[in-house]
Amino acid sequence: MRKLGFSTIMLWVGLLFLYLPMLILVIYSFNASKLVTVWGGWSGKWYAELLKDEQIIDAVFTSLAIAFYSSCMAVILGTMAAFVMTRFRHSWAKMTLSNMITAPLVMPEVITGLSLLLLFVHMADMIGWPTERGMTTVWIAHSTFCAAYVAVVVSSRLREVDRSVEEAALDLGATPLQSFFLVTVPMITPALVSGWLLAFSLSLDDLVIASFTSGPGSTTLPMVVFSSVRLGVSPKINALATLIIVAVSLVALIAWYIAHRSQKRSLARMNEE
Amino acid sequence: MKLSALKRPNGRIFTIGVPYLWLLLFFALPFLIVLKISFSSMAIAIPPYEAIMQYRDEVLEFALNIGNYILLMDDSLYVSAYLNSVKVAFISTLWCLILGYPMAYAIAKAPPRKQTILLLLVMLPSWTSFLIRVYAWMGLISDTGLINTTLMSLGIIDDPLRIMNTNTAVYIGIVYAYLPFMVLPLYANLVKLDGSLLEAASDLGSRSLHTFWSITLPLSKGGIIAGSMLVFIPAVGEFVIPELLGGPNSLMIGKVLWQEFFNNRDWPVASALAMVMLLLLIIPIALFHRYQSRTMEAGS
Hints:
The structure holds two protein chains of two kinds.
Chain A: H1 2-28, H2 45-52, H3 54-87, H4 92-102, H5 109-127, H6 135-160, H7 163-171, H8 176-205, H9 208-213, H10 221-229, H11 235-272
Chain B: H1 3-38, E1 53-56, E2 59-62, H2 67-74, H3 76-109, H4 112-127, H5 130-141, H6 146-153, H7 167-190, H8 195-203, H9 208-219, H10 221-236, H11 240-246, H12 253-263, H13 267-297
Antiparallel strand pairs in B: 1-2
Helix pairs in contact in B: 1-13, 2-3, 2-13, 3-7, 3-10, 4-7, 5-7, 5-11, 7-10, 7-11, 8-9, 10-13, 12-13
Main location (chain B): membrane
Transmembrane segments (chain B): 21-46, 81-105, 117-138, 169-191, 212-236, 267-288
GO cellular component, one term (chain B): plasma membrane
C-alpha cells in the first residue's frame, strides 16, 4: 500500500514538472512590463504587437501550408505501409519496408536533415531538380518522417479491426480495391484522422529538418521563433508561444477525442457481442 | 479464374511498391550519399566538396579521402563532443526512467476511466511545440530568471544559481522534453501485466518491495528498453536543447554537426560526424527496432 502511495505522489510531481513551466510562460505573456522577469500588471499588448509582425504572419502561413500537404502525403504513405505490415505475408520486402518506415521514429533529426539536404543537392546536380530548395523539399522531408508516426497509429488500428468483414467482401466478389475503400477505410477512419492530426502537429513543430531542407522564401514558424529565441527571452515570443500552445493543444485534444471515442465504441460493440 | 483474382498481384505490388520506392529514395539513398560525401574533401565551390570520382585526361580518378575521419579521431574537440553527448544522453535517460517509471506505474494501477485522462495529461505537453517547451525553461533558470529572482528576493541565496549554460540545464531540458516518451511505452507494458501474478506472490508471502524487484521489474523489461531507447537515441543527436540551454560551453555532437554544416560550411566533416554518430547508435537503434517490430506485428 505504501508503494502505491509513492508512485501516485511521483505521478503528481511529474505532472507538475510538465505543466508548471508552460503555465508560467502563459502567465508572463500577459505581463505589461518589457522586462521578462519583472511583473508589471496584466496586459495584452504583446499579442497586438505580434499581429503586426509580418515576418511571423508569413511564417505561420508557410508552416500551415507545409503541414497540410505533408500530413496528407504522410497518411497515404503511412497507411499503405501499415497495410503491408498487418495484412501481407512475411517476406523480405515486407521486413525491409517495416524497418525503413519506423526508422525515422528514433533517428536524430540532424542526421535526417543533413542526409535529405545532400540528396536534394545531388538530385539537382544529376537531373536538374529541385532547382532550389523551398516548400517542396520541406514537404518531401516532412512527409517521410511523419509517415512513420502515421504507420504506427494506423497499423495498431488495422490489427484490431475484424478481418472477417474484409474477407467476406472479397468472397462476395469485391475487388481488393473496393474492399479496402468500402470496408477497411470506414473501419479505420478514426485512426486515419488522428494520424493526420499527429502528422500535422509534428510538421508544424519541426525546426531541425526544416532548417536543413528549406531555402530562401520558405522560412517556417519554428525557424523564425528559433532565431529570435537565440537572442534570449522576450515578451513577444511569450505571447506567440502561448498562442502555439493553445492551438496545438486544441488540435491534439481533438485527435485524442476522436481516437478515444472510436476505441470506446468498438469496446462497447465487443461487449454486446 | 475471375478477373479480380488476376488483378490482385498488381494491387499488392502497388501497395508495397509506392511506400517502398519513396523510402528507398528519400530515406535509404540519402544515407549512402552522406557516406559518399564523408569521404570527399572540402572545396570552395557550390556544392562545397570535391567529387570522389573524376574522369580527367582519359583517367578515371577515384580518390577516397579518409582525412575527415582521421580528423574526428585526432581532434579532441570531436572526441569529447561524442563522449559528452553519450554521457548527457545516458544520465538524462536514467532520470527519465527514475521519474517516469513510478508515473507509468501509478497510471497503470489507476481505475481504467482515470487511466485515459492521466495518459492524456502526460502526452499533451509532448504534442505542443518542442521549441517552446525548451524556451519555457530559459525564462526560469537563467541568472535573472524566475527561479533565481524568487530565491534571491526571499533571501535564500545571495548569488544567482548558475544553472543556465551548464550540463545541468541540458539534463533538465532533455528530461522535460522526453519524459512523455518514456512514460508511454512503460505504461503500455505495465498495464498488460497480469495482476494475478502479483496477487499470487503476495499470497505466498512475498513482501511488496520484493514482489516489485523480482516480478514487476523483470516483466516490464520490454517497456524499459523501448522507453529508454526513445529517449537515449534522439538525445545523443539533440541540437535545440544544448544550443538554447547549454550555451557555448556545452559540447554535444548534434550541435557540432550543425556548426560544421551551417557556420563552417564543411559538408564533408559534417557528413563524417553523422556517419560516426550513426555507428554509435546502431546498437540502440537495433534494440528499439526489435521491440517495435515485435509490437507492430504482434497479433497479425
